[in-house]
Protein: 2-hydroxymuconic semialdehyde dehydrogenase
Amino acid sequence: MEHVVPNYVAGEFVETGSRFPLHYPATGEQIGTACEAGPEEIDRAVRAARAAFQEWSRTRPSERRAVLNRFADAILKRGEEFGRLETFDVGRPIRDNGRPYIERAAANIRFFADFAAMLGSECYPMENGYLNYVLRHPVGVAALITPWNVPLLLETWKLGPALAFGNTAVLKPAEWTPLGAWKLAECAREAGLPEGVFNVVNGFGTGSAGELLVRHPGVDLISFTGETTTGQTIMAAAAPTLKRLSFELGGKGANIVFADADLDRAVEVSIRAGFFNQGEFCLSGPRLFVEEPIYERFLAAFSEQVGHLRVGDPLDPETRMGPMMAPEHLERVLGFVERARARGARVTGGERLSLPGPLGDGNFISPAIVTGAGTEDEICQQEVFGPVVTVAPFRTEEEVIAWANGTRYGLSAVVQTGDVGRAHRVAAALQAGTVWVNDFFVRDLRVPFGGMKQSGIGREGGHYSLEFYTEAQTICVAV
Ligand code: NAD
Structure:
């Protein structure tokens, strides 16, 4: 397989001379190159989106709904191809890229297509007879900038509402994972999305496609998902042109297990929260706090099951954990583990794995459990973005809430308990945009999604996406 990944501008696939290599994380093998969009392609993409906005913003919602539903159908139809491509892009095991994953990606488009077509409006009659009502207008050209860890989910999560509410879009996928966005463009074309409504530009961040897009005066709004520090850079670069921003940033979720939780379930949930997507997951729960009376028992059961997690060939349906995204990312994760050990923490796993055959050059690491780390230590404060879970015992509810809230992040958390009252009380006290009780990563597209503190700005999902992707206009009528 030797892909040459083009840009998609004004309904055409556009190759450029500046190329960068793409590698399969499981073998290190080069699987293709992507064409970097320079200033000319970025400008053409934004202009195409602006031109298409004239028509698309006025297209009837029911027509937009029809074409976007065809777009969702096209994604589903090519589900297997998307699943495999995402494994080659990210290294995520194929078992996690199956039908549910693809259906969720398609649902991101379909949900907002239907939602936008069925929207009503607010009305505020006044005592003196005046009537206020609110209209929603699309904003304009949306720049959608996405990370590498769950590309297809995040790209469709942004594209769905942006297009359904009548905006046009320029998507910049992460430089490490451009394969899915290319195929999304093919689906869009197949579905009959008018040219210029959806464009894809490839490249890096600073000094490349990302920054060019952020600074372009023809872009009206930016929906960005990625690291907190990148969010800071983007915010500064977008300031001179006063763009509307929505940020979904880093996380360092707490997973709190009370002594009255169902132990087997708590272990199973904690494995998913810690190691789904090799821990390269913003919503994961890498800080595990377990109430003292069950601490030893829980740790024994958790360690045993982590020991059974099969790490290896992502194309093998039995594999539970694939490689780290890139060699430099593997080094970064190993660095965290080494420094935690040097500070006196006990670590099991967290070792570079050399697998047989072609996987020998893959970026594999064994899942790590870290105990004895201080809550202020780097390993408990920084986003490691790998299969590394710290486990610590706690005594009281107050203590664990303080620890859970004691980072700069506030994206998500997990609370596991058999006490209904406690579940509600602790969940409400946590500074996290989403709290799951006795489960992990259950998503409803209607609810607000986003982070508190430095995990983000704004919320998306259902009405919250409507807020971001539209301009509200009040019309006041004398009657
Ligand atoms: P990243 O911030 O390095 O890159 C994300 C995207 O931004 C990429 O497309 C990149 O090219 C682009 N970019 C980088 N610098 C830029 C600049 N100066 N201007 C414009 N664009 C720029 O993040 P990553 O390493 O790809 O992804 C991992 C991060 O994403 C983690 O911090 C993770 O927590 C976060 N994340 C958050 C969520 C969420 O929903 N909150 C979801 C997934 C990932």
Observations:
- The pocket of nicotinamide-adenine-dinucleotide is lined by residues 145-149, 154, 172, 174-175, 204-206, 210-211, 214, 225-227, 230, 233-234, 248-251, 282, 383, 385, 411, 451, 456 (CB under 6 Å).
